[in-house]
Here is the input.
Amino acid sequence: MQPQESSALTAPRLSTTVANDPRPDKDISFRPPVPADAARISALIADCPPLDTNSVYCNLLQCSDFADTCIVAERSGTIVGWISGYRPPAKQDKFFVWQVAVSDSARGEGLGGQMLDALLERPALQGVLSLTTTITEDNAASWALFESFAGRHGATLRRTPRFERDRHFGGAHETEWEARIGPLPTAYRKLSKTRELI
Here is the structure.
């Protein structure tokens, strides 16, 4: 995302300690967010530097208008994980991951990868052929998360600069590199089956 301000159109900064292990934890449940979650999600993001914080209002919009493409991970009533994302209006075959946050209490459990996999199984993401996100060059943990995701799905990860330090951020923020992962085999088959029925 962006330095010290909120906008639904800018790129994400992901936690530096997101795990890669995709094994599910039976104590953790996944669900779409609801507006009542927004304040707790904001607190989780604030506890996951170097994530950029958003206004609670921004998180309210994500928890309502974008709930179908966002996910909450919960353990014993406590939110321990969060991913926000959306399908770009002009590119409905893509899914853009905006932000990934994992609580200290759930790190090292592969929760980031589990949430990504659970999101892709949602009806709201049927027909998505590729996943994109943006990551700064030095965020090794985030690169590892998405490289692991690509490997599990037999997909290719390609990277190109998207939001540049001087051109887009006025020198105040490091360049955000776009990671493009695809094709996604499971979604690819879903889209093919849909076309067969038309």
Q: What stands out?
A: Confidence is low (pLDDT under 50) at residues 1-21, 191-198.
